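for the recovery benchmark. tokens below, seq after
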């Protein structure tokens, strides 16, 4: 809501307080209530209610002004400061408004302490999410725009059943929901998953979870594995690694290629590790590298078949 509109509503509420003494007596007398003590009590309590509304509105307006004017400079932390001011101000307004009711300060403090204990126990899940949200925003545990994966037993994730050979693969199998953080509220955070569905995670669950950050400031690169299967009957084992290395010369190979394992008695698997930038499309790079290896395999098979045919013809 715009600050000008908030100011206009504040003036309207203040005007209601001024005209309260003139309108309410006539309304009550029209209802048949003529006792001055009763009229005074009704006016008093209505005034208290209006004071509470005005106080809460002022606090909310101040918090909104803080958020608006510090958003560009502080970013997401502007929301944290604004929300902290708002909730602290709400409590302060309620305490100050109760004093005209004849409640002594010592009784008010003791009562608020007891009430705070009861409310705290009753709202423990709510408060835990609230303070977890403050910690997340203040410490930068995650920030809006981060691409993360949540690894937690509190957010169950059941991956599709992999083929049997995948369990012997050197690919990184990372379980958990992956997406981009789009909003961090005081009670829960919104994560836009890769399938464009929105996942809302309570802040206390998020704070107690391990988070895999794909946009970490400590690393601007990532490593991917590229592996291809070659038939033993169609390749020269002693020269296979050199051929693969030549095919992948245009990629940033940091390890390999080398014969990593034997998938069965007739095939071997060649593995190479490539380094790509964090902002690069690693899927396309892996696809291009794999295409070259598959093309190499096809060429070796065709060449071996042609050589065998020539020998047979001769």
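predicted aa per position
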């Amino acid at each position: 809501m715009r600050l000008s509109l908030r100011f206009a509503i504040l003036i309207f509420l203040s005007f209601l307080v001024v005209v309260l003494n003139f309108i309410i007596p006539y309304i009550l007398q029209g209802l048949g209530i003529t006792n001055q003590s009763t009229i005074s009590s009704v006016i008093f309590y209505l005034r208290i209610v209006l004071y509470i509304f005005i106080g809460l509105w002022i606090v909310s307006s101040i918090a909104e002004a803080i958020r608006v004017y510090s958003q560009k400079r502080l970013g997401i932390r502007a929301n944290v400061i604004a929300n902290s001011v708002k909730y602290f101000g709400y409590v302060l307004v309620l305490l100050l408004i109760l004093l005209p009711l004849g409640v002594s300060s010592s009784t008010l403090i003791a009562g608020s302490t007891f009430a705070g204990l009861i409310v705290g126990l009753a709202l423990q899940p709510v408060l835990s999410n609230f303070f977890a949200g403050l910690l997340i925003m203040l410490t930068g545990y995650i920030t809006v725009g981060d691409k993360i994966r949540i690894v937690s037993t509190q957010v169950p994730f059941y991956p599709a059943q992999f083929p049997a050979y995948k369990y012997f693969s050197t690919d990184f199998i990372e379980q958990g929901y992956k997406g981009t953080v789009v909003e961090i509220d005081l009670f829960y955070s919104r994560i836009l998953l890769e399938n464009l569905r929105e996942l809302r995670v309570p802040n206390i669950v998020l704070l107690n979870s391990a988070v895999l950050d794909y946009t970490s400031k400590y690393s601007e690169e990532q490593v991917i594995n590229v592996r291809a299967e070659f038939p033993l009957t169609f390749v020269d084992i002693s020269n296979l690694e050199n051929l693969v290395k030549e095919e992948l010369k245009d990629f940033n190979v940091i390890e390999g290629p080398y014969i990593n394992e034997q998938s069965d008695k007739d095939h071997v698997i060649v593995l190479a590790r490539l380094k790509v930038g964090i902002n690069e499309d690693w899927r396309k790079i892996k696809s291009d590298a794999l295409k070259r290896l598959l093309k190499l395999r096809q060429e070796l098979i065709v060449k071996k078949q042609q050589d065998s045919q020539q020998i047979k013809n001769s």
